C-alpha cells in the first residue's frame, strides 16, 4: 500500500510504502534510526540488521542527508514520540543520492540560511511555520465563506495609491505611470457596494526602507470590506476572525506548534472580546511607562506598541487615532472630528500591529474636501469618489498582515521566516 506519513495512522500493523527524504540518521550497533520526511510530516524509520540483512543494513547506515528513497515497512504505534507512530523498515529503494547537502545538522548563520532558503524550507521548524501559515489561510477562507463574504481579487498593478505615494514601487504601464499595489482596499470598497460583504487575499508591496523584524517588502494581506457596517461592527468581526484563526491552529497544528516550542497556553487565552483603549489612553499609558518623548498627534513605533501590549494577554485595539496621521478615507468621529473611527489591533508578546481598519467616509461632500486636502483631484481617483455619489452607505473594513500574524501565532521572532521566499531590503534571492 502506497501512502504518506500523514496517513500512516490508518495502516497500523500493515505494510506500506512511502516516498521520503532522509532528514537525518543515527545507528546503534545492529539498529539504524532513520529520520524521514515526505512533505506531509516527519517520522522515524527503524532498520534492524537481523530483519533486513547485512548488505541492506550497511546501505542504510551509509545513506546521506536528503537522499530520496522509497521505504517499505510495517506501521507500529510509538507512544514515546509526539507523532505516535514509527515504521519498521523491511526494504528501501534509493531514488537519488544527495551529496554534500549544504545545511547540515549544526548551527548556520542567518544569511547563509537565507541564501539557501530553497533548501532551508525542508527543515522541521521551517516546515512547521509554513504549515501554520497554511492553516491560517485555510481558516481565513473558512471564516469568510461561512459568514457570507464574496472573495474579490483586486489588481496588483494600479494607477493610484491607497495611502500615499512615498512607499510605492513605480513602473511603466505602456505610456502611463503605474504602481505595485500597497492595498486592495479601494477596489474592495467598490466591490462591497456590489456584493455587500467581500474580502481579498493577495500580495502587497511597500517600498519602505526598513530592516526591522516586522517588515517585508512583499507581503500578503487579507482585506475585508463590509457595507452597512459601522466601526464597532467591524471591530466585532475582527476579533471573531482572529479568534477563529487561533482556534484553528490550536486544533489542527498540534505537532507544528510543538516543533516550534510554542506555548499553547498563551494562545488558548485568545478569545473574543478583545480589550479596547483609545489613542488618548494609550498616550497616557506610555507616559506612565516612561515614554516621555511621545506626544499627542504622533504615531506609535514598535517600542510603543510593545509597551502597550505588555499590559494585556490578548490582542488589544487602539481606537480613534488623530486624523492627521491616518489615511484620507477614514471617517471622523462625529462627536470629535479631530480623531477618526479607526483601530489598530496590537498582538501580545511584542509582535506589533497585525490589523489596521476603519469606518470609511461615506459622505460625498466630505470626501471631496479630503480630495482637495490631499491633492487627489486627478482622474485616477474619480471612480472612488463616485462610490459616494451613487447609493453611498456606511461601510467599514480592515487589513490583516498575514506574515506578522503567522509570526505571532507560531512564536517566530522575525517575519522573514513566515513567508516561503522573503523579499527584504537587501534580498531578492533566491
List the helices and strands and how they pair.
Elements: E1 15-28, E2 31-37, E3 42-48, H1 49-52, H2 54-61, E4 68-77, E5 85-96, H3 110-115, H4 117-120, H5 124-146, E6 150-151, E7 157-158, E8 170-173, E9 176-180, H6 185-195, E10 197-205, E11 218-227, H7 231-252, H8 254-259, H9 264-268, E12 276-278, H10 279-288, H11 302-309, E13 316-319, E14 332-333, E15 336-340, E16 342-347, E17 352-359, H12 364-373, H13 382-386, E18 395-401, H14 402-410
Parallel strand pairs: 3-5, 6-10, 12-13
Antiparallel strand pairs: 1-2, 1-4, 2-3, 4-5, 7-9, 8-9, 10-11, 11-18, 13-16, 14-15, 16-17, 17-18
Helix pairs in contact: 5-7, 5-14
Pfam families: tRNA-synt_2 (PF00152), tRNA_anti-codon (PF01336)
Subcellular location: Cytoplasm
Organism: Halobacillus amylolyticus
Which overall shape is indicated by the principal axes computed on the Cα atoms? Answer: elongated
| Name of the CATH class of the largest domain | Alpha Beta
How would a textbook summarize the main sheet?
8 strands, mixed
Strand content: 25-35%
Class from helix and strand fractions: alpha+beta
CATH topology of the largest domain: BirA Bifunctional Protein, domain 2
Number of strands: 18
Helix content: 25-40%
Q: What are the segments in which pLDDT stays under 50 over at least 5 consecutive residues? A: none
Oligomeric composition of the shown chains: single chain
Q: Major sheet: order of its strands?
A: 6-10-11-18-17-16-13-12
Domain Aminoacyl-transfer RNA synthetases class-II family profile: 130-430
Main location: cytoplasm
EC number: 6.1.1.22
Enzyme class: ligase
Amino acid at each position: 500500500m502506497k501512502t504518506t506519513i500523514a496517513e500512516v495512522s490508518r495502516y497500523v500493523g500493515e505494510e506500506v510504502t512511502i516516498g521520503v527524504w532522509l532528514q537525518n540518521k543515527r545507528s546503534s550497533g545492529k539498529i539504524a534510526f532513520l529520520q524521514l520526511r515526505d512533505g506531509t510530516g516527519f517520522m522515524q524509520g527503524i532498520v534492524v540488521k537481523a530483519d533486513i540483512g547485512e548488505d541492506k543494513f550497511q546501505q542504510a547506515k551509509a545513506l546521506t542527508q536528503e537522499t530520496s528513497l522509497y521505504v517499505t515497512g510495517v506501521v507500529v504505534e510509538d507512544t514515546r514520540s509526539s507523532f505516535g507512530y514509527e515504521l519498521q523498515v523491511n526494504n528501501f529503494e534509493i531514488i537519488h543520492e544527495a551529496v554534500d547537502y549544504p545545511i547540515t545538522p549544526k548551527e548556520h548563520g542567518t544569511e547563509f540560511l537565507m541564501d539557501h532558503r530553497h533548501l532551508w524550507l525542508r527543515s522541521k521548524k521551517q516546515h512547521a511555520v509554513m504549515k501554520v501559515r497554511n492553516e491560517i489561510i485555510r481558516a481565513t477562507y473558512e471564516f469568510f465563506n461561512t459568514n457570507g463574504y464574496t472573495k474579490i481579487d483586486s489588481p496588483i498593478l494600479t494607477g493610484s495609491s491607497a495611502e500615499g505615494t512615498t512607499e510605492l514601487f513605480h513602473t511603466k504601464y505602456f505610456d502611463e505611470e503605474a504602481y505595485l499595489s500597497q492595498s486592495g482596499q479601494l477596489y474592495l470598497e467598490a466591490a462591497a457596494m456590489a456584493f455587500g460583504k467581500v474580502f481579498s487575499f493577495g500580495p502587497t508591496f511597500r517600498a519602505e526602507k526598513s530592516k526591522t523584524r516586522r517588515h517585508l517588502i512583499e507581503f500578503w494581506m487579507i482585506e475585508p470590506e463590509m457595507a452597512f457596517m459601522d466601526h464597532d461592527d467591524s471591530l466585532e468581526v475582527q476579533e471573531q476572525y482572529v479568534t477563529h484563526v487561533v482556534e484553528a491552529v490550536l486544533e489542527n497544528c498540534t505537532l507544528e506548534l510543538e516543533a516550534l516550542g510554542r506555548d499553547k497556553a498563551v494562545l488558548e487565552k485568545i478569545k473574543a472580546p478583545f480589550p479596547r483603549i483609545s489613542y488618548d489612553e494609550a498616550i497616557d499609558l506610555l507616559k506612565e511607562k516612561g515614554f516621555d518623548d511621545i506626544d499627542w498627534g504622533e504615531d506609535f513605533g514598535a517600542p510603543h506598541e510593545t509597551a502597550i501590549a505588555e499590559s494585556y494577554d490578548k490582542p488589544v485595539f487602539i481606537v480613534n487615532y488623530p486624523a492627521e496621521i491616518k489615511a484620507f478615507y477614514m471617517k471622523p468621529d462625529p462627536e470629535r472630528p479631530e480623531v477618526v473611527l479607526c483601530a489598530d489591533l496590537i498582538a501580545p508578546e511584542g509582535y506589533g500591529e497585525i490589523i489596521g481598519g476603519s469606518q470609511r467616509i461615506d459622505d460625498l461632500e466630505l470626501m471631496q474636501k479630503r480630495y482637495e486636502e490631499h491633492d487627489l483631484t486627478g482622474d485616477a481617483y474619480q471612480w472612488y469618489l463616485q462610490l459616494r455619489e451613487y447609493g453611498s452607505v456606511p461601510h467599514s473594513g480592515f487589513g490583516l498582515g498575514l506574515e506578522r500574524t503567522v509570526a505571532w501565532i507560531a512564536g517566530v521572532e522575525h517575519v522573514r521566516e513566515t513567508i516561503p521566499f522573503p523579499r527584504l531590503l537587501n534580498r531578492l534571492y533566491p
